[in-house]
Amino acid sequence: MAATLIELCGLISTSVAKVDARCKDLSTEYPDLNNPANSEDSESLLQDGAIAAATSIAIAAAAQLIASMQYPARSIMDASYGYVVATALGVIAESSTAEIIREAGPQGCHINDIAKKNGMDPMKIARLLRPLATNHIFREVSPNVFAHNRISSLVDTGKSFEAIQAAPEDKYMGAGGHAALILLNDDETFKGAAYIQDVVLDKVSEASDDELNTPLNRAFGTHTDLFSWYEKPENRKRFKRFGYAMDVSRRLSPTGAILKGFKWSDIPENSLIVDVGGGIGSLSLEIAQANPHLRFLIQDKAAVIQEGTQYWNTELPGALASGRVTFGEHDFFGPQSVKNADIFLLRFIVHDWSDTYSHKILQHLRDAAQTTTKLIVVEHLAPLACEEDPAFKHIPGAVPDSYPPKPLLPNLGIVNMAPYNVDIQMMSLLRGCERTFPHYWDLLKKAGWEIEAVHRPLGSLVSQIVAKPI
Ligand SMILES: C[S@@+](CC[C@H](N)C(=O)[O-])C[C@H]1O[C@@H](n2cnc3c(N)ncnc32)[C@H](O)[C@@H]1O
């Protein structure tokens, strides 16, 4: 056993030495945890191949070292208290505490001064911030005085507290940081997650093919799909926030990740990309900005299109007016009317729905496809916690070429938690799931699509699954 601990320590020290050497080569410093991140650029170092690889090994080894060394009763209790950090983060984001702390400056802000602005009980502010600071999210710089660090600054929208008070529904419009996604996770997803146990252990509910049999519906006493639920007047704030949360989820991968992998620049002039269930169109925006030769049709529900129009007029003025980018109302469970698409793009759509419902979406696209149309599904590909089945080695990108050094887990442990996090989120909000490669292969094949390749650009959390009509 001690030998394993020594091996893990060795992996940490050699990986950190590699990071240090690479930083020296690049004449730069690794970002300091105590410094608030001031822009996405300050984190761009992690997009360097050598640094990203060594960092992943160090993190996986450090987490495994903790699991190996900590008293198991402590580990299991800490895991069962997983809601503590999520709860605290949700309240801090919703109460605009992060903005108040930033406005106070680098010396930090006393809980009484935070309370004077957002009206919360000062002791509760401290009780919520302290477990976060203990997990390296914020710093307690002196008794009851909290300041930002590199991680907590992502809760901050960058807006003034007064501006947020004046227009709370617009808090995330044009905002920096990750607050919109934090609150999607720690508000409705979290409330639904509290009911996962009740739903998955209820045999009647599990046997039913009712797509609305979700923990979210049980939590809120409703019986509607998530997207119609968002359109209820009482959910106006959540509805607007959801669109911006999707924009944040794009930013979790390095800027331009969607432009690497599939070669958008090689598609002929004027090709039409149909972004099905495209939301406000944040993924299309990134592709459109870099590829002025492509046309886009973003399809979604009417209410979402309204938000999308506002988003594009802010982010890429002129694109809608010129007609290069259009929005269209469309129900993806009905026949697809666009028959001349060069690419059908689906991001975070298939993972929302059960296999039965996903099949309907994919089949409608297959029915509308030309022989040359490609389908690009952008989703998390859920790895196994052991080595993958090599059966799909012949599909480029489907199976890893190699695995991390032993004794690390083949999926690199906590480094790759994102697909499982989002999978449980789907279990809370909908009846969808994150899928493994063989699961996608079967699902697409049954709907008439054959996967040609999988791209996962460096640092990207999601994969691009490229398929052609069978
Ligand atoms: C998880 S979001 C993904 C949005 C977008 N693809 C992105 O990645 O930013 C799912 C989207 O599907 C849309 N949607 C849900 N049901 C739909 C339906 N029946 N027809 C068309 N769009 C739908 C929602 O309004 C929402 O914008």
Shape: globular
CATH superfamily of the largest domain: Vaccinia Virus protein VP39
Structural class: alpha/beta
- So how many helices? 19
Strand content: 5-15%
**What is the helix content?**
40-55%
Distinct ligand kinds: S-adenosylmethionine
CATH architecture of the largest domain: 3-Layer(aba) Sandwich
Rg (C-alpha, Å): 23 Å
Mean pLDDT reading: 94
Number of DSSP strand runs: 10
Low-pLDDT runs of 5+ residues are none
Strand order of the largest sheet: 6-5-4-7-8-10-9
CATH fold topology of the largest domain: Rossmann fold
- What's the helix-strand series? HHHHHEHHEEHHHHHHHEHEHEEHEHHEE
Structurally, the number of domains stands at: 4
CATH class of the largest domain, named Alpha Beta
Main sheet specs: 7 strands, mixed
Beginning-to-end CA distance, first to last residue? 51 Å
Describe the structure.
Helix content is 45%, strand content 11%. Helix 6 crosses helix 7. The strands form two sheets. It has a seven-stranded mixed β-sheet with strand order 6-5-4-7-8-10-9, sandwiched between helices. It is an alpha/beta fold. It has four domains: 2-78, no CATH class; 82-166, Orthogonal Bundle (Arc Repressor Mutant, subunit A); 179-248, no CATH class; 259-469, 3-Layer(aba) Sandwich (Rossmann fold), CATH 3.40.50.150. S-adenosylmethionine is lined by residues 227, 246, 277-279, 282-283, 300-301, 304, 330-333, 347-349, 352.
Question: What's a concise summary of this model?
Answer:
This protein has 470 residues and is of the alpha/beta class. It contains 19 helices and ten strands.
